[in-house]
Amino acid sequence: MSDHTTTVGPQVEAFVAQVRARLTDLSEDEREELLGGLEADLVEKLADGADLGDPWLYAAELRAAAGLPEGRRPLVRTPRLRMPRGEDVDRVLDESRTEWSALTARHPAGARAWEVVATLRPAWWVLRAWAAVTLVDGWTGPWERVSAIPTLGVPLLGPVVLLAAIAASTLIGLGRLWPGSGPDRPRLTRIALLAANLMALGVLGTVAGGGSSYLASSPTWDSADYGGYPYTPRDGLRLDGSPIRNVFAYDAAGDPVTGVQLFRGNGDPLTVSADQAESGWRPRAERTVGCGWLNGSRQLFNVFPLADRVQRRGTCLDDADQPASLPVPPFAQVPPVTSPVPPVVEQPQPGEE
Amino acid sequence: MDTTQLLKGVLDLAVLAVVDAEDGYGYDVLRRLRAGGLSEVGDASVYGTLRRLYAAGALTSYVVPSEEGPHRKYYGITPTGRDQLARQTKDWRTFADTVTDLLQGAAS
Questions:
Q1: On chain A, which terminus has fewer CB atoms closer than 10 Å, C or N?
Q2: What fold characterizes domain B3-107?
Q3: pTM for the complete prediction?
Q4: Which helix (H) or strand (E) covers residue B75, if one does?
Q5: Could B66 and A62 be called an inter-chain contact, meaning their C-beta atoms sit closer than 8 Å?
């Protein structure tokens, strides 16, 4: 028998909290009777190198062995149609917090991963500050690409505001500027902070997920008919990870060619996505939208160069009475080229029809 | 054969026997059961059984504080528990003998 004792780690604490949550239908005495000494036992179990396992199954086994009726797993209560009271909000926030702690603590690997994530918090404080300033930048300035240092339209203002935002965000993170971390903060503060963090996540998700380095909050061409080609509109041509918005072809003599239809070897069209063919992202602002070549009324985005048109909303198809124009190619002419394949009489190839 | 089903029927008896030999706390009882050969037994089953036997008056319990860690809850056997142990031991022997005889009859 080991006399090993340690203080209760967060893993055991969270586990016991989860088990306790499944015993809420019992009387206080019964519950404490079941849970008494459990922490010490679990601490030893962990010290023996065993996994704590699933607290729900554990609680079920405990109840069954103790001869108690099978409890019901507390369901997330269906919200009744009334305004949530303040205490409800507190309870939801607290329960989510406990639930999360238990979730991360359930397996040693999870606990370690969460530790790593927790040490990255400062990086998040910087990121969310950047996201906030970028959001402000996006709604105030003219359209522009999302940049590492938001410009805010005035020289030096962007970097200064960004630095201030990072400082503020870090102080909030450290609990210096706003009541610190944890469940003891005022309710509104918690909600505001949660909303701000979620919004920052949204901005980062939009920037990263769009991949196009635009905050594409405007109506895009997603609704355009792509003619059933086996590709998704957002996966367009890329070069070194950057989206390509247009392609300019020249023939062997070096002259620009219009109306080149491009395909891969497997027959898939080489398209730019509708998102990539547009520039400027503020809703309702004038922006350039790409206009696919037409096959009947269907827009094709694998025919180059793509035409474009400046308009305020919608896609190229929404404003069809305005003429679209072909963009000016980057070169009027390029040097002529010759084919590496001998041009004239070829030997008959075996196996060729 | 799945021994967990068999175990359910005799866990009370096994736990009573272990605690009768020496007072113990949950994990200690579990360890002794496993050392005794019941390697499949789950800790929550043992703890639940201890709590139930305590509620039924077969066991007594006392808390031993620990300076470094959480308190341990020790269980000891009561006279009621000893009676139950003696009765169930007898039942088990009879039952085991019966089943053994049956199996021998079937085998011959």
A1: C
A2: Arc Repressor Mutant, subunit A (1.10.10)
A3: 0.40
A4: strand B72-77
A5: no
